[in-house]
Design a protein that fits this description.
The complex is a heterodimer of chains A (380) and B (428). Chain A has 380 residues and is mainly alpha-helical. Helix content of chain A is 28%, strand content 6%. Classes of the chains: A mainly alpha (380), B mainly beta (428).
Chain lengths: 380, 428
């Protein structure tokens, strides 16, 4: 479908309520002549700068999955943002990079990244096309020695011959076109039309169970979750895009909490190991001060961006450092009022009942897109 | 053509003499490997991981003179750097023992060394498309069959988890076939080691973990509940000729190295589980069904000593077991294989991983490195090769090569070689 670029931006096509329920999608009207994308039910229209460029999407996908983009040909974007693991990695709390180097944060799930105003847990990047260069050049991640070496490498690969020129109106491989292609692909990673969307925006009463509906009441009410994980009248990204302290960053940085880990040796078989007994074989953990590293504002110490919650069932483990394994753990964490933060307690205990907690988890699982769940294969 | 003919002759020799003469470490080589060294080995090749800040920081094959009568006994006489760090790990001879295949678990490169002059191994081919062609990553075990090299991978290139498979190349380095690890009938998809019993037409495989875990800092991994869920808990018995699984056995806690008993009258294999610290016996029951049985602890499993390499004696009566985290080697009496008994132990250093013994069991060699990010840190990151004599009662140190002082790196897998006149002495 070609859309005239002079049409008003992002005007939803009016289709019948019945059709919404039937197909589960609303089509936005994109501005560029070669843009075409279906916006799932429950997501806002994409603004012009957020839209993928059709000719660039396949090239971006090829780059995203290409392990040759790492200095040693071992890691691609898709090795940390795994298609079958919620566009994050379900395999480890924090991401593992070049030669197994430890990163200090959980790989962010990329669902609906097109809408993000800032990128990374600390929001240090503001443009998705520019963002790609951070992992490409980080010595912890893909460890390329320079921008030029990446550009030259791709220029030298036979299977990329002509692809950039076709996607970018005869412009070849460059820092800008590599980033733009990757961004176009990632802007297609939209997740909506969940059972929640069908209930809340599609007005399909039976899409959620009574327990899930009760969980939504807790989410929006007593649990105060929707204060940061916002829900709009016509759409919901479940994030306000702002940065907050929960106590987890401070807790980890000062080494608070248990000094003993319960370690699984085999299914159903655990031992407890003291951290002091692990010192001879543990590398020092990289410190992480959160948003402060971007702003140098003391109030931003250990603050992190609110993540979106769509497909949250698939994106475990949770929090910026992957320190909570399950949604039940997350709900329990907030119910207790988080952790102490630098002598203060920023969050307040919620006092949820067991039923409220269980229903809240059930509601969170209703935010899953069926197509993404069908792809999900987290084990091993 | 001559090389092909030689391979065929060796394969025929294997068939003619049967497994009793050809299974052996020297005793952990494939039963299809010809020209076992039953006397004194001349050279020891150590596949060594490059280490940041050490020498050229690259992986290398280090050759050490282990002939006691040589003026360079106990010295490094050759080192071949292959460039970069790719997580050098294991090696394996081709069936004719002319070539040594050496793999890297991270970048998946496989280097084929020509040992025509074993004092100066030379790289004659590098396979760089293992991951692209097979979909698997982490080429771990290199196991010769007749004219073929069978490779057990550890992971895959899509997710870096533990779902993986077996790859077969011919001796020229051409890909022949791939075989996914089973996911049905109790299979968990993981892989680690291969052990073939030709007399029974069976192949036994074990299971470890995927790239994310084996590349990760071990201290971080142990504290990470998601990571610790992702280890293999199975062994699979295959029909070797058809490469079809016969049965999957539950062996919880990452069963690693597989050693079939070398005695002709025996029909069992033994393994050790890394996480649960147990010895497991694999044998047939009265109905002829293959079963795995827990036959004893290794050290104190609650302290997770982390059993790693094992080496069985040629008579199937003894087993060396290294436990990495306490840096200890242990010798088990297997006279009653249903109840192995630890009869000797020795603290080797801060860490110990690989163990290789001569065919007569009189010489035993040890190295330190497990995986680059699993090795200990700081001063506990000792890196050495130690050579011992073993009289059945005590290990007596003969020499040590300090891989840090020699600016070599992390000492890992060992293979013996002999000067050409000895290497030809099949059945000597």
């Amino acid at each position: 479908m070609r859309i005239n670029r002079h049409l008003p931006l992002a005007v939803p096509i009016c289709i019948s309520f019945f059709s919404v329920l039937l197909v589960g999608y609303i089509f936005s009207k994109p501005a560029s002549s070669d843009i075409e994308i279906a916006i799932p039910l429950g997501l806002p229209p994409l603004e012009a700068h957020q839209r993928p460029v059709k000719r660039q999407v396949e090239l971006g996908r090829k780059l995203f999955f290409d392990r040759r983009l790492a200095f040693n040909n071992t890691n691609s974007c898709a090795m940390c943002h795994i298609e079958t693991q919620g566009l994050t990695s379900n395999q480890s709390a924090t991401a593992i990079g070049m030669e197994g180097r430890s990163l200090n944060r959980n790989a962010p799930a990329l669902y609906n990244v097109a809408y993000e105003k800032t990128l990374f847990h600390d929001g240090r990047e503001t443009d998705l096309a520019q963002q790609a260069w951070s992992p490409l050049l980080s010595s912890l991640e893909m460890a390329n020695p320079s921008i030029g070496s990446v550009v030259d490498r791709i220029r030298g690969l036979e299977d990329y011959k002509g692809l950039f020129e076709t996607a970018f109106d005869e412009r070849g491989v460059s820092m800008e076109t590599i980033g733009a292609a990757l961004a176009s692909y990632q802007r297609t990673l939209l997740a909506g039309n969940s059972r929640f969307d069908q209930w809340y925006y599609g007005k399909k009463a039976g899409a959620l169970s009574d327990d899930e509906k009760h969980g939504f009441e807790v989410f929006a009410g007593k649990g105060s979750c929707a204060t940061c994980h916002t829900i709009g009248e016509k759409s919901a990204l479940f994030t306000d895009g702002n940065f907050y302290v929960t106590g987890i960053g401070y807790h980890t940085a000062i080494g608070a909490g248990s000094r003993v880990s319960k370690v699984q040796l085999a299914p159903g078989e655990f031992v407890e190991i003291k951290h002091e007994d692990m010192e001879t074989y543990s590398a020092p953990r990289l410190n992480d001060i959160g948003r402060f590293a971007v702003t140098l504002d003391p109030k931003d110490r250990w603050s992190y961006k609110t993540p979106g919650l769509r497909n949250v069932e698939l994106t475990f483990p949770y929090m910026h450092d992957g320190s909570l394994s399950t949604l039940e753990d997350v709900v329990e964490f907030y119910d207790k009022g988080g952790y102490e933060h630098d002598g203060d307690r920023v969050l307040q205990p919620l006092g949820l009942t067991a039923k409220e907690k269980a229903d809240l988890v059930a509601f969170l699982k209703s935010l899953t897109t069926a197509e993404d769940k069908a792809k999900h294969s987290p084990y091993r | 053509m001559k090389k092909l003919l030689r391979s065929s002759v060796c394969a025929l020799a294997v068939l003619a003499v049967g497994p009793s003469l050809t299974i052996a470490d020297e005793t952990c080589n494939s039963p299809f490997t010809s020209a076992l060294i039953k006397g004194q080995e001349d050279f020891l090749h150590v596949w060594t991981l490059g280490e940041v800040g050490v020498g050229d920081e690259s992986d290398k094959l280090v050759t050490i003179d282990v002939q006691p009568n040589s003026p360079t006994f106990g010295k490094v006489i050759n080192s071949v750097s292959v460039g970069g760090r790719g997580e050098a790990h294991h090696t394996g001879f081709t069936d004719d023992r002319r070539f040594l295949w050496a793999g890297r678990l991270d970048d998946n490169k496989i280097f084929i060394f020509d040992l025509i002059d074993p004092s100066k191994p030379k790289v004659v081919k590098t396979i760089t498309d293992f991951a692209d062609k097979t979909g698997f990553v982490g080429p771990h075990t290199f196991y010769a069959t007749a004219g073929r090299m069978m490779i057990q991978a550890l992971s895959n290139g899509k997710t870096h988890d533990g779902q993986t498979g077996i790859v077969v190349y011919n001796n020229a380095g051409d890909l022949i076939s791939t075989h996914p690890m089973p996911l049905d009938n109790g299979g968990d998809g993981y892989g680690y080691d291969i052990g073939i019993n030709p007399a029974q037409n069976v192949m036994l495989t074990s299971s470890f973990t995927g790239w994310t875990n084996y590349m990760m800092d071990i201290g971080q991994m142990v504290k990470d509940p998601e990571a610790m869920k992702r280890f293999g808990s199975t062994m699979v018995m295959w029909d070797f000729k058809s490469m079809k699984p016969i049965t999957t056995m539950q062996v919880p806690g990452a069963p690693l190295e597989i050693r079939w008993s070398l005695r002709p009258e025996d029909n069992w294999a033994i393994t050790a589980t890394a996480l649960t610290s147990k010895l497991w016996l694999v044998k047939q029951n009265e109905k002829g069904e293959w079963q795995a049985k827990d036959v004893g602890n290794i050290g104190d499993p609650s302290k997770v000593p982390l059993p790693v390499d094992i080496s069985i004696t040629a008579d199937g009566k003894g087993l060396w077991v290294n436990t990495f985290l306490d840096g200890t080697t242990r010798y088990y009496d297997l006279t009653n294989v249903e109840a192995p008994k630890e009869v000797y132990s020795k603290k080797m250093g801060s860490q110990v991983n690989m163990v290789s013994q001569s065919f007569d069991g009189k010489r035993v060699y040890f190295t330190t490195s497990l995986l680059a990010n699993w090795d200990k840190k700081g001063n506990d990151n000792e890196q050495w090769l130690k050579a011992y004599d073993w009289d059945g009662k005590e290990l007596v140190e003969k020499f040590t090569v300090d891989f840090k002082a020699e600016k070599l790196g992390r000492a890992h897998h060992m293979k013996f070689s002999a000067k050409p006149t000895k290497a030809a002495a099949l059945g000597e």
